[in-house]
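In these records, each integer encodes one residue's backbone shape. Here is one protein:

___
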Amino acid sequence: MKCTPIHLSGQYVSLEPLTQDHLPDIQRAAADGELWNLFFTSVPRPETTQQWIDTALEMQRQQTAIVFVIREKHSGTIVGSTRYFRIEAQNKRLEIGHTWYSQSAQRSGVNTDSKLLLLTHAFEVFDCIAVEFRTDFFNHKSQAAIERLGAKRDGILRNHTIMPDGRIRDTVVYSILEHEWPGVKKNLQYMQIKYAK
């Protein structure tokens, strides 16, 4: 389970390694819906995008994350970002997070395809026994999306993170376990068929 850049390609999206060249693409994607105005997300503002990219790539250099941009295949447009992180090779587990999508890409099949790619690689290539998701207690849309994947709610970490604006966040934790993966995979594939219609 090495933190080296990888490329994953699915039905609706391709997940490509983040580079410095993606700066204008990330700015455009985040501007679609002005996602930075949602207080419970960590989507970069136009003026902080360079810092966001630098931080993400530093996580990768330190071997603590694999960072992707999400390209919608039909349009060829970058519509968001996601990453593997909290990678624990010795415990065969990781987290999928720092995920966000342009407003126009939400509820479109992009999330389903992205998660199918990430989870397949995590369980079938990295040989994970657990994959975790975390989100802000107030991000109800994210919680619903994670639950639609088939992840189960493990609990809430109270007063877990001090946010940049000083707010203290409660974090909702979900996971999918190795023995649950075949059923989750079948569900995601079924969801893909529904989006294709």
In short: The chain has a mean pLDDT of 91.
